[in-house]
Amino acid sequence: MGGGLLFLVLALLSNLSLAEPPEAKMSFTEVCDYYGYRAESHQVTTQDGYILTLFRVPGLKNETLKKDKPAVFLQHGLLDLSDTWIMNSPAPGFMLANAGFDVWFGNSRGSFHSLGHISLSTKDKAYWEFTWQQMAEFDIPASINYVLKATGHEKLSYVGHSQGTLQMFAHLSENPEFIEKLNIFVALAPVMTVRHLNIDFFSILDNIPFFNLLADMGIYDFLPNPKLNSLFYYFCDLFGFVCDGLIGFVADLQVSNDNTGRFPVILSHEPGGTSTMNMLHWQQMTKYSSYKVQKYDYGTDTNMEVYDSPTPPIYDISKIKGPIALFFGTEDRLADPTDGAWCRETLPAESVAYLEDTLPFGHLTFMWGKDMSYFDKVIDLCRQYS
Question: 369 vs 76, 301, 359, 361, 383, CA distance in Å?
């Protein structure tokens, strides 16, 4: 009843004569075209059968493209998708394109643009049996290797946000030699441990088996993209404080630093969605009694079958090689500064090529901030190490 009423309200709002920016209804490639950039869509299949969509912005539409452009790969965070890099004004993805980079955008398995599989349907429970652990093991190498082959480069620069950093940290800890394929790994709002996470959404769930209940009810995907771009645009445009509050509740919003005027357009493309199992993995991480980056805990019996151990293996972060650039936010309640300090101290000192820990950012400010001038340093680092 309540959900039906909400959608009725949204439907009525969609008929109002508000000035809706055209990007609210556009696809990723249409947004790129609207702003004067070339855009391509590529598909890559992982070793375990997931079909991922990668987007590419090789330059401006009126530009004579050069094959020797340095490549940069952007990987979004939890519940997000590639659109997050091109929706703000200015947009990080377009800033890199303007700086002369061949820009590639990843989309994690189970997110809106990457719902394919060679044999499974999204209606199958087995499709959704993954977490960031499998993204690290399979999505990362499949995507990076594809881009290197497509561009003919030996290396590229990798820029990850939130879970996009965790995926690369986990992969590098088990495959330290993979750093040889990266010019530099730029980590925005880096996440390894979330012991001090302070998000209302997760706090409420601390003592409620919410994600287990969803799985028991046969709900295996979490917050899939509703494909109601225009409706959500109008809702957020008229009731911005509600959208601001919702983002703060779920994902840490710092209103004073974020481009809230752009939120109706941004949220018309969100969320990206993920698996319920992935959310359960994140909830497990909030309950660790010590600092660690650990694989998914299936329970003692299944752990023995999967890992040959009653407890999940721990990623050895001390094995990660660089160069790595770390960008932390002082107001970040998801990638908390205390947890960030453990991240810095655990990584080998020689692996950290650059550290910025004074930015007054919340978790989403790195993508959706009013002042995106910090990203000039990201571009400088990618250029320097390319």
Answer: 15, 45, 11, 8, 22
Other beta carbons within 10 Å of 31: 23
| Calpha distance 286→280 (Å, rounded) | 10
**pLDDT range class, residue 199, cuts 50, 70, 90:** low
Type of residue found at 264: P
Predicted pLDDT of residue 11: 40
Domain parsing of the chain, residue ranges: 2-385
363: DSSP letter: T
54 vs 289 pLDDT, higher one: 54
- C-alpha torsion sign, points 214, 218, 223, 229: negative
Catalytic site includes residue 203: no
Known active-site residue 162:
yes
Distance, CA of 264 to CA of 247 (rounded, Å)? 12
- What mean pLDDT do residues 31-38 have? 97
Strands 71-75 and 352-359: unpaired
The confidence band for 95, taking pLDDT boundaries of 50, 70 and 90, is very high
Of 324, 298, 293, residue with least CA distance to 311: 298
Per annotation, catalytic residue among 114, 162, 173, 275: 162
The pLDDT tens digits of the residues spanning 226-257 come to: 765 554 545 555 445 545 555 554 455 556 78
C-alpha–C-alpha distance, residues 211 and 231, integer Å: 27
pTM: 0.89
- Which one of the listed residues 252, 332, 336, 339 is annotated catalytic? 332
- The CATH class for the domain spanning 2-385 reads alpha beta
CA quadruple 301, 305, 311, 317: dihedral, nearest 10: -160
At 19 the pLDDT is 55
